[in-house]
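Could you please consider the sequence and fold following this short note?
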Amino acid sequence: MSKQVPIAEGLFTWPAARPALLTSRCRHCGIASFPAAESCMACSGQDVAIEELPGRGTLWTWTVQAFPPKAPPYLGPVGDDFVPFGVGYVELADQVRVEARLTESDPAKLVIGMEMELVLEPLCIDEDGNQVVTYAFAPVDTGSKS
């Protein structure tokens, strides 16, 4: 029987009922970096703490990936199985902008500044038959109808 595995260790809490991306925050200058690193990208300080980022943020910018990225490192479907997907930067609590897949790719449904929420999604099946899971952001359903 196959199991789910994260695309990479240390990117997000795993397993978790409420997933969170993991950042490193410099104890010297306070800058947060994603993905987490062993040293500060701003001041080169070595004293960093690993923290969970908020699960919600705002869409800073976006585009649609209309063709398969180069593989490797791309692990998703290619050829006739490829489906275009949204890609964007989501700003999390004025701390860090995270580049991520978006669950939405319809330009009519994506607006800069809209609220987004972290989700985990299946990406592919690895060579061991495990389902590889990655992080993405989904538009928050505000409940309003146009």
Q: What stands out?
A: The CA atoms of residues 30 and 125 lie 38 Å apart. The beta strands are 4-6, 22-26, 32-33, 48-52, 56-65, 85-92, 96-102, 115-125, 131-139. The chain is about 0% helix and 40% strand.
